[in-house]
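Exercise (ungraded).
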Amino acid sequence: MAEFLTPKNLVIKIVVCSAVLAVVMCLCALVGTQRISLENVLAGPGQGPGENTDYEIFVGVRIPRVILAALAGAALACAGVILQAILRNPLADPYILGISSGAGLGVIIAVLSGITWSFWAGSPITVFAFAGATLTVWLVWYIGHLAGKSQVTSLLLAGVVINAFFSAVIMFLTSILKSHQLRSTTLWLMGNITEKDPSVLWVSAVCILAGILGLFSICHRLNVLTFGQEEAKGLGVDPAKTRFAAFGLAAFITAIAVSLSGLIGFVGLIIPHAVRLVFGPDHRQLLPVSAIIGGAFLVIADTVARTIVAPAQLPVGVITAIAGGPFFLVLLAKYSRKVSWLK
Amino acid sequence: MSGIIEVENLSFSYSQRVILKTLSFEVTSGTFLAIAGPNGAGKTTLLNLLCGLLKADAGHIKINSSNITSYPIKKLAQIVAVVRQEFVPVFDFTVTEMVSMARTPYLGTFGFESNADKEIINEALETTDTLQFASRPLAQLSAGERQRVFIARALAQNTAVLLLDEPTSFLDLKHQVGIYDLLKAAQLEKGKTIVAVTHDINLAAQYCDEVLLLGGLADYHIGKTKDVFSPRQIEKIFGVSTFAGKVGEEKFFIPLGKFAKDSKHITSKPSNGQ
Amino acid sequence: MILKKSWTLPTITIVCLSCVFGLYWAAASRKTFRLPTTTSPPKRIVSLAPNLTEILFALGLGENVVAVSNNCDWPAEAVSRKKVGTFWQPNTEAIIASKPDLVITLRFEQQKAVADTLNRLGYKVLTLKVEEIEELFTAIQKMGEAADCIERAEKLAGSIRKKTNDLQSKYGLANKVKTLWVVQVEPLRIAGRSTFVNEMLELAGGENAIGPTIGQYPQIGTEELLACGAEVIIQSAMGASNIDRQQQAAESFWSKFAALPAVKNNRIYVVNPDTALRLGPRLPEGIEIIARCLHPDTAMEKHNVALQTR
């Protein structure tokens, strides 16, 4: 009797991983530049601001930050899984189709225009980054479609061209920025997690979780899609529609993650690989587990980023790059017999 | 399950090159049809047309009396299964995962297999004798074992029609015979209509009920294998002279090239040739 | 395909409603800071910028300042206060741990995020924009209101204004000296006409050698540089150490541009921006330093100018 992935199996795995994530988040929230004690935190808020600073730091500063890191990590990891499936390439990452340069362009335009008022919940940078990412992605999709009926290669080419062009525009605009604007742009480009409004977190969480759920519903189709167009059609999966849905949702959640936390690299590339090495390539399992592990990874990376050179802060993108590489090599060494494309 | 294929006046060309011209034939349910012919005659193109991957320029293809283009993609996948040349997928799926994908046209929202699906998959694995490496990644299997897995997948798809594109190329003799035995069993026990593109005339003659010989463009011959396969026909289509022999009712053909051993010395036992 | 599933429409509806709820919550919880009118003056003040710290000490509130940014280096007592992160990256946790009852920030992106978080937690935050000389006086007034020392604020503002006006009448009405203020050497960036550096330059009797530009601190090319005809070049030092060495390096760099009157007459000065260019109580001193670079007939050697700026 062969072994199958059942809903029960999957739910157990997800619950266990989520528990690990919750523990990681709580532990990381207890760590920071100020020492706080757990009992003080549990004592609850004081009468007014300044009464129980441990509680305020924990709940007001660290928890939102940790939640943001978990959300961004989950979104980026999921997007990585999806793009590697659509492009049938284990080396794809969420930024490959123009999202990074589009969001970057949005940010620079926001910073240059000097708009300071907030759009309800989001700062101008957040909103413009999201708009930039989304518009660029659709531009890439449209060009890819024109060039070759949304075949994978034409998509990739369109992405590369747009990335190059927008990067040039970004470089031009950067040269006319003021110094403090330049700083915030650079920080953003390196990936930076800061404290955000709870309402922003709420909206982002809802959107990202909905996006992940939508992607989960087409995971079994993605399994088939990785074999190519013809095989997919032979098994009753419409490749164009599946690709469109997957790409659209992946781009959406990446745009949200990028607008919140800047361009954090490595998460979308490494986490799907790592999870695939351990759990196998079945996307019904790969997607949710990658989301959770991606969240945990970024939470830990962010905690390191904000404590290692305290009281200064490193951009979290630096930590993900430094940590991601060796971590992945270790996994690869251990599980390399499972990887066919290395042979 | 019934799998009737009707092809009427089918024409197809790639850009300027005409491949097929006014091809018409019918395959009744439960027949094992071989498609043979020289390279470039359009065998694979015809197969791709039959499974709905390509659209005909003129004429139509009907499956179970409905035009193939009228079937939604999911429904078509429940009727027609295709086995192409074997390949190694980009990601390391195991044999079980591979065969489970055959149930995709039948799965619900989140794509988990029901108990019925699991039974069908297990049966397919058992029939093709691949249950022993159910948990191994596909890349670790030999070519013959991989091909059996692909056939298991097609069987698990539980379709009335099974299309195969050169299922035994790159396989050794034992595996060639094994695959054809599998297919014949599927035809006889499950009543599947099987259409296989093949280069092997002898195996086709042995196992297949009918054969469609494609000579290119409008030149084609269809009929029972014993009627269509003859040295004269083979010489005309392939341009190779053969020595035909019989073992009981079974015909066999030995190709005679320029440097082939002297045919005079070949005797057929127990009965005469032709 | 997904759209056909029965749960798609309810999910999309829930998502949209949640977003609307979130945005409404954001709008509703937007707190505006009102200057305290009845509560007692703040006793624990945190300042996140060097010039704000200087103003606080000048207002006599030095004892109430409990924490400052890493870059706050004047007066000497400020250096010994608790540090809460840099000017670019203030550390919210450290700020909260200092239990402030008033936090003063500048208005730009990085500090805004911190200010928002503190606001949300209920702390009183005063955000000021101090990018021009006139804004300095407004800032002093606002700080006076927030810290309940309005008279002292008026006195401070008045004294700065008077000193500035005196300097302007002493130096500013003479012949304008064409000056180039260099903020960065590689690549070459200068302070343009819409900066407060330019304001100070003009008060000290100078005129920016470069005409109006798009950016505030634009890069300029060699052509434009050679055509500007600057009579004096003032360069911002990088850090306070080794001013002598920086002076020598600057002179050797500029020797390439022998066509400029400033280079021909060896009128190149390296000045410490932290001292001379701080928009705070030491504004008059900064203007004076600049004036002495521009008008050597007050008989100051370069070396002394450098000493003065340490």
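Further reading is listed at the end of the chapter. For now, observe: Residues 116 and 124 of chain A are 7 Å apart (CA to CA). The first helix of chain A runs from residue 7 to 29.
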